[in-house]
Design goal:
Dna Ligase, domain 1, Arc Repressor Mutant, subunit A, homodimer, about 45% helix, alpha+beta, 2 domains, DNA-binding, 3-stranded antiparallel sheet, 3-stranded mixed sheet
Chain lengths: ~140, ~140
DNA sequence: AATTAATATGAGAATCATTGTCAAGAAAAA
DNA sequence: TTTTTCTTGACAATGATTCTCATATTAATT
């Protein structure tokens, strides 16, 4: 976590930006949470500690975190964005229950390998991918 | 194509709705196009033929087409929606060039099978999925 | 055909997430 | 300290999409 802040700071410095108290608070709040958090939710949590903070600053900072490679943006078709920690962990995909909204992360190297081979066949060089599998979780199937 | 209109009409009738000239024009325009068309683009094309048509009607009709199972909504993170023909064809995924925006469709049964097995392992019953592979196409890599 | 009930339409307002603007504040550089 | 640069918060603006509503159209009923 401390390391994350350091990485963020390095990124900022390298771009002539500063690690302000607002940015640090937002970043810490983000890292404290388990993934898939919405900007709105970050904003709410941050406001409990620093009520004066603006949502523009929250949006701006989340964008910086994404640019620094520490956060990655996900859109699950809910009409708003979510961010999840990135950079250290493996790339992973999502299993989403369409009834209760539960999100499970998974990784599968064989799927990734197949994606690359399909891409190669079409002359593409893969830089990223997004796989969302929708369905009903055990509970919601009753 | 005529068949599509008939299916659409059936869907509408079964829901106490009517196939108006506007709806038919929008549906025909949609089917004439190759997939991944934005609502905006449909609206533009439709207006050439019927300048009086409103964008609200276009949005409403695209939604009906999706509900009828003839169109399926895709969001590629561009900030707006696209629709593609659905219902008859196999499910397919997308290979997207992050530089020129080119979109290639592909299908891969092995990937789908792996998805199902991962889902099963987590107690999920898969109803749908979305796979987008991002990268650079041959041209854009130069 | 006339009347009544239901559904559609277009125009524009409203919404919602996100981004831009700008004056005022804080930090770093000179 | 003065100047330059970067930040911030408040709020306006944006852009896609949806809602509202008065009017029009179609279907159902008399």
């Amino acid at each position: 976590m401390q390391e994350m802040i350091t990485i963020f700071q390095d990124y900022l410095q390298q771009n002539g930006l500063r690690l302000t108290s607002q940015r640090e608070l937002i970043a810490r709040t983000f890292f404290q949470n388990r993934g898939h958090i919405s900007t709105e939710e970050i904003y709410r949590q941050v406001r409990k500690i620093a009520p004066g903070i603006g949502f523009a600053t929250t949006y701006r900072t989340m964008k910086l975190l994404a640019e620094s490679g520490l956060a990655s943006l996900r859109r699950f078709g809910e009409g708003f964005s979510r961010y999840e920690p990135a950079g250290t962990a493996e790339h992973h995909d999502h299993l989403i229950c369409t009834k209760c909204g539960k999100i499970i992360e998974f990784e599968n190297d064989r799927i990734e390998a197949l994606q690359k081979s399909v891409a190669r066949r079409h002359g593409f060089h893969v830089t990223d991918h997004k796989l969302e599998v929708y369905g009903l979780c055990r509970k919601c199937r009753q």
